């Protein structure tokens, strides 16, 4: 009888432990993240990992509304120059240190002042931070900066343990200590990043997973094979062709959400000697002709199985910031030809720099074929990414096919690309227009959304006719996961928020 | 033998010096600016400047070389700009993985290549020979990444016998480690087996036609003894050279195979480093593998002595 009980108990223990072991989520990433320090980090894929490690002051909802996370609420002063945030109480960092106003001030100042900080540019408008009490911070701005709150929903709003950050300095990324739902366990470069549940997390009751392993697998086919074989539970950036197949497979669930970023063609209008040779820089009618020769729907159908979102602005037509009065122009080859005739250049030869990955090449070939019908001779120059950055900055291109991963606030998709002060590697067109510049400054300092929208419209009217960039389409973040995984919510920033996820 | 060895060892030092100079110089010829790549999407000019200064990218070429080689001589291979970890740690982390993969692949190559080469030579111009040649041709002409993906589809997706990818350290779970490594090792070993088979075959055919083999047979020795003890031993000399070269190549990492099976070895490390212009990592890994390669060649030379008594005089 006793042995029966022992066996039954052992069985129960095994059952419980297998259920517990089953709460291990394995995620296939498309790239290996860079340094895991929110201040220094640069890559999109790194942000996916931060979603489980580092909570932010505030977060976004799937429809881009700002909601509390480590801050419980915020108020903005009438002049827009002070943001006061009330902080959540009873929160601890992974090393047991308390999260309070001093820690929040430390984190923000680290983002602002650490040498090599990639966050500084995002929150440079902050002039000082005060802590009137243990759970309140006041963020003072030199001048009103409308995108500030959006910046704090991303890495610039991530809080780090001051004790760990002081101890590790610029090596903090080798063992990040934040206040997210999961704590860092180990990282083997190019192989895996392992995190495990943080039992003292402030929202512990909604964290069902025990452990997450992020595995960078750059090849989309291999990533998919791993999902199919059960080695992974969730994969990101599924190829559109595979996505169509996966949708039909009852073992998997798929999700697609339009990105915050865009894909476009940057035209060298005034960047170095290259611009002087560029036929597209000579006459804006030639740029218009190029846009009119393109059928964005066809690009989407041919290369992306119709899954992506054609677009003509820096935000997608689904965004509340999209200017509906300026819709996607229809293809008009006859008009394009006429414009080229009028400009006295019926067959412009254009140097077309394209990243050397398969999808970009396919898009370029479709564009080349379409533009040819209007008279353009686009000469595709496939270029490796690091080299293309340098060439773009130096203006050694006529036309450059470029992707931007996007920011929550539309300013992040715009200011650096068409503003006179944009870094040369981003505003590689060297477009600089007095009227646009004035409107850009105005949208940044405006307080109400309606007011900003007016300025954005003015920018759109001018830039969409001047065309330093011809916006083409917006990718969808295509994910697939086993049906055992529940609770996944799609966010347009493409990140995987792990609170609420559960393996059945 | 000692004199020969010390002469060879003396050559190693200038060879490594030239290798280090070559790696460093070639790397500078790569287009693109590492600081710009490292500055990520946002491309803040102040961040680019900071990175340039931090990693001495603003210094002239000879100064940069001195910084690097000075560190190397003190055992410091520099730091990965991308993930902020010392290159030495990365090399030590990847070395057991790549070494295990190399040893397993090499064993598979030996087990298939040499017996197939012997059979093919002994049964020259028979159906056995043709079959072995056909298999060798297949092994040589099959791209690794393609074979890898097919094997994943068969053994992982369809049959579910082996994991599709992912590496498990042997200390954690030996069985899972072997399960994860067997497919990539087979893919790599398969291609080398084909080369080994071809070399063993031609060396054996040559040796089997020589007088001393006929004498051995005339003495009435059994065919097995003639082949294994007399012929194979001599035929192995070129195969040992080839083996050392192939093994050295395996140690430098198998880029495509590691990508397909997500094995975190040197191949993946170096490819990512090149694309991200992570100079210190590229230099460190190449210098390490070059040293390994040179050492293996030295060991191959010593092995000649052991298999060929004539060299000893």
Can you describe this structure in just a few lines?
With 504 residues, chain A is α+β, with helices and mostly antiparallel strands.
- Strand count of chain B: 0
Total beta strand runs of chain A: 21
Overall mean pLDDT of chain A stands at 91
Q: Please give the share of residues in helix of chain A.
A: 25-40%
CATH class of one domain in chain A: Alpha Beta
Termini Cα gap of chain A: 34 Å
Could you tell me the radius of gyration of chain A in angstroms? 25 Å
Structural class of chain B: mainly alpha
| Average of per-residue pLDDT values of chain B | 84
CATH architecture of the largest domain in chain B: Orthogonal Bundle
> Beta-strand percentage of chain B?
under 5%
**Shape annotation of chain B:** globular
Poorly predicted ranges of chain A: 6-21
Protein topology:
The complex is a heterodimer of chains A (504) and B (313).
Chain A lengths: L1 H20 L2 E6 L14 H10 L4 E3 L5 E3 L2 E6 L5 E6 L13 H13 L6 H4 L2 E8 L2 E6 L6 H5 L9 H7 L13 E7 L3 E6 L13 E6 L3 H10 L4 E2 L4 H9 L3 E7 L3 E6 L4 H6 L1 H4 L1 H9 L3 H9 L4 E2 L22 H10 L6 E7 L2 H17 L2 E7 L1 H10 L4 E6 L10 H4 L15 H12 L3 H18 L2 E6 L1 E7 L2 E2 L15 E2 L1
Parallel strand pairs in A: 1-10, 1-11, 15-16, 15-17
Antiparallel strand pairs in A: 2-3, 4-5, 5-7, 6-7, 8-9, 9-10, 11-19, 12-19, 13-17, 13-18, 14-18, 20-21
Helix pairs in contact in A: 11-13, 12-14, 17-18
Chain B lengths: L1 H28 L4 H5 L6 H10 L6 H13 L13 H36 L4 H15 L2 H15 L15 H35 L2 H8 L4 H29 L3 H7 L4 H10 L3 H29 L1 H4 L1
Helix pairs in contact in B: 1-13, 5-6, 5-8, 5-10, 5-13, 6-8, 7-8, 7-11, 8-10, 9-10, 10-13, 11-12, 12-13
């Amino acid at each position: 009888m006793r042995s029966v009980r022992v066996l039954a108990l052992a069985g129960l223990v095994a059952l419980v432990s297998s259920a517990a072991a089953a709460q291990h989520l394995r995620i296939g990433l498309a790239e290996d993240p860079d340094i895991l320090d929110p201040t220094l980090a640069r890559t999109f894929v790194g942000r996916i990992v931060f979603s489980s490690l580092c909570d932010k002051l505030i977060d976004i909802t799937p429809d881009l509304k700002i909601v509390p996370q480590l801050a419980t609420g915020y108020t903005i002063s009438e002049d827009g120059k002070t943001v006061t945030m009330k902080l959540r109480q009873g929160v601890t960092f992974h090393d047991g240190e308390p999260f309070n106003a001093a820690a929040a001030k430390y984190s923000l100042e680290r983002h602002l002042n650490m040498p090599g900080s990639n966050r500084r540019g995002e929150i440079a408008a902050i002039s000082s931070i005060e802590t009137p009490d243990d759970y309140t911070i006041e963020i003072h701005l030199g001048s009103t900066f409308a995108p500030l709150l959006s910046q704090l929903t991303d890495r610039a709003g991530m809080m780090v343990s001051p004790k760990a950050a002081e101890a590790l300095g610029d090596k903090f990324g080798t063992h990040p200590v934040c206040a997210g739902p999961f704590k860092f366990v180990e990282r083997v470069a190019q192989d895996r990043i392992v995190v495990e549940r943080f039992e003292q997390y402030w929202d512990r009751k909604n964290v069902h997973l025990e452990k997450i392993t992020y595995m960078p697998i750059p090849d989309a086919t291999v990533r998919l094979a791993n999902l199919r074989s059960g080695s992974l539970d969730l994969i990101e950036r599924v190829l559109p062709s595979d996505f169509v197949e996966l949708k039909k497979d009852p073992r998997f669930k798929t999700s697609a959400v339009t990105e915050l970023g865009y894909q476009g063609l940057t035209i060298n209008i005034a960047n170095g000697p290259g611009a002087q040779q560029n036929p597209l820089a000579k006459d804006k009618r030639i740029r218009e002709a190029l846009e009119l020769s393109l059928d964005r729907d066809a690009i989407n159908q041919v290369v992306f199985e119709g899954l992506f979102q054609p677009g003509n602005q820096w935000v997608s037509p689904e965004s509340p910031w999209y200017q509906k009065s300026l819709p996607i122009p229809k293809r008009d080859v006859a008009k394009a030809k006429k414009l080229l005739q009028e400009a006295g250049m019926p067959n412009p030869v254009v140097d077309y720099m394209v990243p050397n990955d398969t999808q970009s090449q396919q898009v370029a070939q479709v564009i080349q074929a379409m533009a040819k019908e209007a008279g353009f001779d686009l000469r595709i120059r496939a270029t490796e990414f690091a080299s293309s950055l340098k060439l773009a900055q130096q203006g050694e291109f006529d036309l450059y096919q470029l992707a931007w991963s996007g920011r929550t606030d539309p300013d992040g998709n715009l200011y650096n690309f068409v503003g006179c002060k944009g870094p040369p590697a981003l505003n590689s067109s060297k477009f600089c227009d007095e009227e646009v510049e004035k409107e850009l400054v105005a949208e940044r300092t405006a307080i109400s959304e309606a007011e900003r929208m007016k300025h954005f419209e003015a920018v759109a009217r001018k830039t969409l006719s001047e065309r330093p960039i011809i916006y083409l389409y917006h990718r969808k973040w295509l994910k697939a996961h086993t049906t055992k995984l529940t609770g996944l919510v799609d966010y347009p920033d493409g990140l995987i928020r792990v609170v609420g996820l559960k393996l059945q | 033998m000692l004199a020969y060895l010390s002469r060879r060892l003396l050559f190693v030092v200038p060879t490594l010096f030239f290798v280090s100079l070559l790696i460093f110089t070639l790397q500078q010829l790569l287009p693109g600016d590492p600081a710009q790549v490292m500055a990520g999407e946002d491309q803040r000019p102040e961040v680019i400047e900071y990175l340039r200064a931090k990693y001495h990218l603003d210094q002239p070429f000879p100064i940069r070389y001195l910084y690097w080689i000075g560190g190397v001589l003190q055992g410091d291979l520099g730091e990965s700009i991308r993930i902020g970890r010392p290159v030495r740690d990365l090399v030590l982390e990847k070395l057991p993985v790549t070494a295990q993969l190399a040893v397993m692949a090499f064993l598979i190559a030996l087990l298939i290549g040499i017996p197939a080469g012997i059979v093919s030579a002994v049964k020259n111009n028979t159906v056995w020979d043709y079959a072995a040649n056909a298999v060798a041709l297949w092994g040589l002409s099959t791209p690794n990444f393609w074979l890898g993906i097919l094997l994943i589809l068969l053994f992982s997706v369809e049959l579910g016998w082996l994991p599709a990818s992912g590496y498990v350290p042997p200390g954690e779970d030996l069985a899972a480690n072997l399960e994860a490594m067997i497919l990539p090792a087979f893919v790599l070993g398969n291609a080398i087996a084909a080369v080994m088979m071809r070399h063993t075959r031609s060396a054996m055919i040559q040796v089997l036609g020589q007088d001393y083999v006929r004498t051995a047979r005339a003495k009435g020795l059994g065919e097995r003894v003639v082949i294994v003890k007399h012929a194979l031993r001599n035929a192995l000399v070129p195969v040992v050279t080839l083996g050392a070269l192939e093994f050295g190549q395996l140690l430098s990492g198998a880029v495509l195979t590691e990508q397909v099976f997500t094995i975190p070895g040197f191949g993946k490390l170096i490819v990512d480093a090149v694309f991200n212009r992570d100079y210190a990592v590229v230099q460190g890994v190449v210098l390490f593998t070059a040293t390994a390669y040179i050492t293996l060649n030295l060991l191959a030379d010593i092995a000649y002595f052991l298999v060929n008594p004539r060299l000893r005089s």
